[in-house]
Specification:
5 helices; about 250 residues; alpha+beta; 5-stranded mixed beta sheet; 4-stranded mixed beta sheet; single chain
Length: about 250
């Protein structure tokens, strides 16, 4: 089996560029049940969001779920600039809206494995979507492995997609407590679980096994404890595989 091996430096990660080096390995990633990826699009300026934020805190404790909180910036005009928001997260949500045939974006919204969505506080609907995805195709096997002070991200081979899938590296803070002083949630302190701070494309997958070397010491900067890799088909497409690691363990 042919495996591509790619190594990153800090500057490369920040720029989202790739440095490829040739290598070979005789082992593949062991097949495992794919975790279900749950993405909450939320905002500190949205009065309907705290209930969904609390629900995501619960989902973040589940072993079979990768829960991620993406704060968007389009409610900033209401009087409070979201301290965790990024235009990149808003673009991600808009890509989902386009792929899923929605008329626009809204908060709070939860997207499950890139294929199902609902209001983030609609627990019954979200739980049904999670259960459906958990019982479906195992997807592409992915795993983080520690090796000599670095992290190896291994992606197993699979059916070649129509177009190469994007491999995203997501870094998040386990918890972020924010005291909101203005806007619809003024005087409230909201705790965000798995608050995404960085979303970086780090490679493309064409069906062949892939191995990426990531410097663990660099990934520990900014106090970000969590790291997730997502393999996604196209812009706003289905999540084909996912892996997670706690960098502090």
């Amino acid at each position: 089996m042919r495996v591509r091996r790619i190594e990153f430096s800090t500057k490369v990660l920040i720029a989202g560029l790739l440095i490829a080096v040739a290598a070979a390995t005789s082992s593949a990633v062991c097949a495992a049940t794919r975790p279900v990826v749950v993405e909450l699009f939320t905002s500190q300026g949205c009065s309907s969001c705290p209930k969904a934020d609390a629900y995501l805190r619960e989902l973040a404790t589940r072993e079979n779920v990768i829960a991620l909180s993406f704060n968007v910036d389009y409610w900033d005009y209401l009087g409070w600039k979201d301290t965790l928001a990024s235009p990149a997260f808003t673009r991600r949500q808009r890509a989902y809206a386009h792929r899923l045939g929605l008329s626009g974006v809204y908060t709070p919204q939860i997207v499950v494995n890139g294929v199902a969505e609902d209001v983030g506080s609609h627990r019954d609907e979200i739980e049904a979507a999670i259960a459906g995805q958990a019982s479906g195709d195992a997807g592409v096997g992915m795993a983080f492995v520690e090796e000599d002070g670095s992290l190896m991200l291994n992606v197993e081979s699979g059916d070649a997609p129509e177009k190469p899938a994007t491999l995203w590296l997501v870094r998040y803070a386990a918890e972020e407590a924010v005291n909101i002083r203005r806007g619809e949630n003024r005087s409230r302190t909201i705790t965000y679980a798995h608050a995404v701070r960085e979303l970086t494309p780090v490679g493309m997958w064409d069906g062949n096994a892939l191995s990426l070397k990531l410097p663990k010491s660099d990934l520990l900067t900014k106090g970000l404890e969590g790291c997730v890799a997502l393999l996604q088909a196209g812009e706003g497409g289905p999540i084909l595989g996912a892996a997670r690691i706690d960098l502090l363990q």
